[in-house]
Predict the 3D structure of the following.
Amino acid sequence: MDAAITASVLMVPVAPAPAVAAKAEIKVTAPMDLVRNRKARPDKWEQEVFQSELRKTAWPKNKVFATEGSKGGRTAFRVMVPEYFGKGCLSCHGTPKGAIDITGYPKEGAKLDELAGAISITLYR
């Protein structure tokens, strides 16, 4: 399984060094209807990007979304790197929708190559 997909599936939090944490944030997130781990909930900006960009059928697969804006009152460059469901994801996240998977969660009904989430990066000025 791809390392990036493994990190997305496991939602492993990464604690950056204090000097880096003041300048950047990185997290794995997903649209609210796909979030299993509360720590992975999208903030308002991330949720808007999922809805207005990454979930559009016209959005090219693997295309990164980036913009300059703000977060917490600080000027920031924000990036969303989309992640997609692979074959290995579907045993827990696939069909039939609503069936309980081996971890005790209901399956989402996902299909191969559908948007699963994103790596969200914030770089502060």
Remarks:
- Residues 44-54 form the longest helix (11 residues).
